[in-house]
Structures are given as C-alpha cells and as structure tokens.
C-alpha cells in the first residue's frame, strides 16, 4: 500500500505549495550552512599524528593498489592486513585520491561532506518526532553548532560517516513504525555503519531495537520487519564473511577475538584520561545549559515518541561515556552528542512558545553568564600568552554572544535564540578558519619540513631509519616513505649491512654514532639531518 514519505505529509492537502517550498528551503539552508562550516579550510591544518594519518595512509594504499587486489574490501597498511579500523572511511578517501592528489583536505573532505549531510537528516528526524517544525529546527541548530560534532565531522576518519549513518538509521527506524519496508533502510544504514565503525553499529542497533520495543512493540513481533533488517545488513555480513574467507583464523584472532579480549581484560588497556572526557563534555556546555533543564520536560512527556527516543539515546550515550572510562573508544562518544541537541531543542521550543507572562528559566541566564565570564577570562589569558590573535578573537566572539544572550534572557526578549545560534555559528566559523579547531595539534611534533625533504631526496619505497623513539604516522604519510625508529645499535648495524641507507638523525645522534663515509643530504629541521652513505670508490694505481 502507498505510504506517505514523511510524517508531516499525511495532511499535505491542507497545506499550500508555498509551505512545501518553504520546507525544502529550510533543508537546503541547513545543508548550505553545514557545508560552509564543515568544509571551510580543511587543508589548512596538517593531519593529526595517529588516527588521521593512519586512515589517510590506508586510503593511499587502496588507491595505488591494482583493482585485482580488491583493496577496497581488503585494505592493507604497509602491505599487511589492516584490521585496526573499518574500511568505509579509507575507501571513501581513496576514491577521492584516485582523481586528486590532495593529501590533507582530500583526506578530510568525505567525512566533512557526510557530517554536513547529517544536519538536514537530523532536522528530518526531528520532523518525524515532533508534530510542529519549531522543535526540529531548534534541535538542528543545536546539532549544527555543537563543537564536538564539528570537530568529529572535520577529522579524517569515521566521525562524519558515523554521525550521518547513525542519524539515518534512527530516521529509518522511526519510518518503519508506519511502514515495515523502511526496516530495509534501517538494516542497510546499520550495515554501512558497521563498515564505518563496528562498535558504534552495535550500540545503535541496541538503541533502535530498545526504542521500537518501547514505542511500537508490535513491530518487534513482525517477521517482515526482521527480514528487512536482515536483508539490509546482508552486505555487512557478506563483507565479514569475505574477510574470514580470505584471511582465515588471522581475521578472527586479530579483528574479533582480540577486540573482545581487550574489552574483557580491562587491566591490559589504558583508559582514556578523565580530563579528555571532561573536555569533550565541557565543549557541549552551551547546549547542556538548555539540555539539563530539559530533563524535566523529558520526564513529563514520557508518553511521546520524542521523549522515548531521547531517553533511550541519552541512556546509550551515558553508557558510552562509562565505557570510555574503562575501555578507550572515543568514537562511541559520538552517540551522546545528538541526544543532547534533541533534548535541548525540544525544551527551548517549549519555553519559546509559552505566553510572555511566563519567565524564562533563571538557570539559562546565569549559566550562560558564567560561561561568558569564563570565555572572557580565557580571552584575557590568550591575549597575554598566544602570539596569534585567532584564539583571542574566537573567545571574544563567544563571550560577546553568551553575554548578550544572558542579557536578553534577563529582559525576556525572544530574540535571544536567534542571537545565540547565529553568534555560535559565527564563532565556530572563526575557529575553523584558524589552526586551533584541532586541540591536539599544538602538543604534536611537526614533521612537515622533514617529510617534504624525505619525499624529494630519497628513492620511492625507500625505508628511512630515524633516531626517534617512536614511529609517527604523520611523518610516514607526508614523506610517502616509512620512517622506522631504531636504537643506536640498530642504526649502526643497518649502516654496515646496507649499501646506501637513509637516516633521519638529530644532532645528538650525529655526535654519538660512528658512521663512516657519512654524507649529509640536507638539514630538515633546526635539529634534524637527512644523511646517507657515500658510495665506495676504488683508488687507481
């Protein structure tokens, strides 16, 4: 039978064509705003040393591998099977690397596009939950201006795909309440989510089934629903079966059993530092000011679908935070962010539509005032410590926004919401235009100059040995060579055994090591030299 595509289309004959165009203009406007925010200056900051560079390196090997190797389904890292991450993000980046030799922005572009698409998708999810547009709009604005969502979406990795596919899966779950055929879309989006991050996929499966069992229990007893879910998940199941068929017990041991063992043997895994979790939650503070007070609205409207989904979502996100205290899985925190935006948007819309005789919650104005004062203090500190003005300007914009909103709330002015969202949006535009949107970057060593020198001064596929204590994926990626750390004894052995080795050494190693026939190629950094061995010459009689 014919079913309406959206919940609000059931009474479309009561609305004019102008309202339909207005709805699509909202969706287009959200998409353009998200594309601007997520896509601005993607290549200005180098890839982070770790997850970003590893993902880009796997994508490069996929793009360079022959099609007969099926590297899209069986990715490798330095020629070895890559089981540490799901293949969706590297495959999307590899598709771009086939056409453009854009290393930094090309690695971040696919995730940024998917994260931008998740904004209108989140608005559509809100339209499925709420009978009117205003809560969906406010929730979408909270989601768009959420700093953790912005950072996750701009990174080269699975963050953007996780956000987009998670929201798509829950949107399909909402649609399946009226038409079980949407369970096929639910299964397909969950299957793709499994290719992006298996742990998050299992988390979202649990949330979706828990919500449907609570809100629409009859659906859980419908065989056609489970059939559609199974058919949609078939590509994911087939992919894991293909991995097992190709790699055999190695895949089972390294990809599945090792992960489960690490989750059980918590003592063998170093948990995420508590300050990291607090920083992630603190970046949600503007939305948390509205979301925490919205818990009372959530409790009073348990019978509504939006409250049930938000409750399950918040519970799943809270469990994800608890899981990170025991086992490091930063991508699981992505589950928590949209739930906060949903509750905050619903509460803001409820207060917005109250009569003028009702006062705005006092906790809003005081909470935003405290945050504004904190941003002002940070601005003053940044002006004395940082030589650049970008952090000071961003903090000043945030302080001005929050202070103005607190004043408008105290005066009972409805314009506070417009000033709040617009001020945060402009502040984040200023942030992504600088190099400070990636907070881990200042603490990571910069190898761009050394990597450029290695790439142009060494033969292709030539391993380079270094006196560094650890291997840095960013140095490997930007140099397009594998730079391997080695001890002093190992360096001397490589020097004796190889005809023409290449070393990246610091000044202390140069002075300590005894390397005959040493030839200095160039100085990579103030403290680094790229050296090789001079070819042996024969003396003529």
Summarize the helices and strands and which ones pair or pack:
Layout: H1 17-39, H2 51-64, E1 76-77, E2 80-81, H3 88-97, H4 104-129, H5 133-144, H6 147-154, H7 159-175, H8 182-196, H9 198-215, H10 223-232, H11 234-247, H12 249-264, H13 274-282, H14 285-293, H15 295-300, H16 305-326, H17 336-352, H18 362-385, H19 390-410, H20 416-432, H21 448-457, E3 464-466, H22 473-479, E4 483-485, H23 488-497, E5 502-506, H24 507-512, E6 518-525, E7 528-533
What is the structure about, briefly put?
The protein is mainly α. 63% of the residues lie in helices and 5% in strands. It has a 5-stranded mixed beta sheet with strand order 4-3-5-7-6. It has a two-stranded antiparallel ribbon with strand order 1-2.
Highlighted features:
541 residues; mainly alpha; five-stranded mixed beta sheet; two-stranded antiparallel ribbon; disordered N terminus
Report what the structure shows.
This protein is mainly α and 541 residues long. The chain folds into three domains: 325 residues, no CATH class; 85 residues; 89 residues. Helix content is 63%, strand content 5%. The strands form two sheets. Strands 4-3-5-7-6 form a five-stranded mixed beta sheet. The protein has a two-stranded antiparallel sheet with strand order 1-2. Strand 3, helix 22 and strand 4 form a beta-alpha-beta unit. The N terminus is likely disordered.
């Amino acid at each position: 039978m014919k079913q309406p595509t959206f919940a609000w289309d059931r009474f479309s004959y009561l609305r004019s064509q102008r309202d339909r165009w207005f709805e699509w203009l909202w969706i287009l406007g959200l998409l353009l705003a998200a594309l601007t925010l997520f896509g601005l200056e993607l290549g200005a900051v180098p890839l982070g040393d770790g997850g970003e560079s590893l993902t880009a390196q796997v994508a490069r090997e996929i793009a360079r591998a022959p099609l007969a190797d099926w590297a899209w389904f069986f990715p490798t890292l330095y020629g070895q099977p890559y089981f540490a991450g799901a293949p969706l993000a590297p495959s999307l980046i590899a598709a771009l690397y086939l056409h453009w030799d854009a290393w930094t922005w090309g690695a971040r572009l696919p995730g940024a596009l998917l994260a931008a698409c998740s904004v209108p998708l989140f608005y559509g999810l809100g339209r499925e939950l709420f009978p009117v547009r205003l809560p969906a709009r406010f929730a979408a604005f909270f989601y768009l201006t959420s700093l953790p969502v912005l950072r996750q979406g701009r990174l080269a990795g699975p963050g953007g795909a996780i956000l987009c596919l998670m929201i798509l899966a829950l949107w399909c779950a909402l649609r399946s309440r009226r038409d079980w055929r949407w369970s096929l879309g639910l299964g397909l989006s969950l299957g793709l989510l499994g290719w992006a991050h298996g742990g998050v996929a299992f988390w979202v499966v649990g949330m979706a089934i828990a919500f449907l069992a609570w809100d629409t229990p009859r659906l859980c007893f419908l065989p056609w629903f489970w059939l559609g879910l199974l058919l949609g998940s078939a590509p994911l199941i087939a992919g894991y079966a293909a991995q097992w068929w190709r790699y055999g017990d190695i895949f089972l041991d390294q990809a599945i059993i090792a992960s489960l063992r690490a989750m059980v043997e918590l003592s063998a895994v170093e948990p995420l530092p508590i300050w990291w979790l607090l920083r992630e939650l603190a970046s949600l503070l503007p939305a948390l000011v509205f979301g925490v007070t919205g818990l009372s609205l959530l409790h009073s409207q348990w019978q509504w679908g939006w409250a049930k989904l938000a409750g399950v979502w918040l519970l799943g996100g809270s469990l994800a935070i608890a899981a990170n205290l025991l086992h490091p899985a930063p991508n699981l925190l992505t589950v928590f962010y949209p739930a906060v935006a949903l509750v905050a948007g619903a509460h803001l819309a409820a207060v917005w539509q109250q009569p003028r005789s009702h006062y705005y919650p006092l906790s809003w104005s005081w909470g935003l005032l405290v945050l504004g004062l904190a941003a002002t203090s940070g601005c003053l500190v940044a002006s004395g410590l940082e030589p650049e003005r970008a952090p000071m300007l961003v903090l000043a914009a945030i302080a001005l926004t929050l202070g103005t909103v607190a004043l408008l709330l105290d005066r009972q002015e409805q314009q506070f919401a417009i000033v709040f969202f617009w001020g945060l949006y402009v502040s984040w535009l200023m942030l992504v235009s600088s190099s400070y949107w990636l907070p881990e970057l200042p603490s990571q060593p910069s190898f761009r100059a050394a990597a450029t020198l290695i790439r142009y001064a060494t033969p292709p596929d030539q391993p380079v040995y270094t006196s560094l204590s650890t291997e840095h994926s960013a140095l490997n990626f930007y140099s397009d060579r594998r730079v391997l750390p080695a001890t002093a004894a190992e360096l001397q052995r490589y020097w004796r055994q190889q005809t023409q080795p290449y070393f990246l050494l610091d000044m202390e190693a140069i002075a300590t090591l005894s390397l005959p026939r040493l030839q200095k190629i160039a100085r990579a950094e103030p403290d680094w030299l790229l050296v090789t061995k001079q070819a042996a010459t024969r003396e003529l009689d």
